Amino acid sequence: AMDETETLQKLYELLEAKGFETRMEGLALLLDLCKNSPKLVTTNIVQIFDYFVLRISDTHKKVKQMALDVLAEIIVILEDAMNPVIIRLVEGITRNLNSKDPGVHATAVNALEESIAHLDKVSLMKEFSHQWSQLSGQALLDVTEHITELVEEVHARSPEVVQRYALPVLWSLLENKALPVRSANVRMVVTRLASALYEVMGTKLK
């Protein structure tokens, strides 16, 4: 128990360090712990995320990009054990989807895709929908695309979740919420969401 406490303390100190390279050491240590001591991480996941989430929005591009890469790997390793931090996880990822740095944007999209592949899809749809109203630009389109991906599977489990969380996204898009997005893809993204909803709801969509 003493060793575990010391390990966690070391992790927190590294993640909070002033030097960006030291913070990156903290990220490497976290990934190592997830691989070799997953129980230690899952038992303390909420507290660990208090420190880790700050690195997802780090001011240093290299740290931020590494944090998103590490997050994608952690999601694959821990899967459902991430449920207690799913809200902060989605917030951290979506905050980086509008990054002008192509590397940061790509790692954020990758983390988003790993979350869909490995985390609870009903919970994700709820969180994507909550975050959606606060998004703009490319992030708005990225999250809409991923809500569309979730529609079929979530509807099979909980039709009411799709109606409560995915439908309002479609209505907002049809009311031109996405017009400020400078992208030719807006119409395509809206069409895909509408088609996915029609596929599972049929004429009930009307």
TrEMBL record:
Gene3D superfamilies in the cross-refs: Leucine-rich Repeat Variant (1.25.10.10)
UniProt-recorded Gene Ontology molecular function terms: microtubule binding
GO biological process, one term: microtubule cytoskeleton organization
InterPro entries according to UniProt: ARM-like, ARM-type_fold
Transmembrane feature ranges: none
GO cellular component: cilium; cytoplasmic microtubule
Protein name: TGRM2 protein
Originating species: Copsychus sechellarum
Lineage: Eukaryota, Metazoa, Chordata, Craniata, Vertebrata
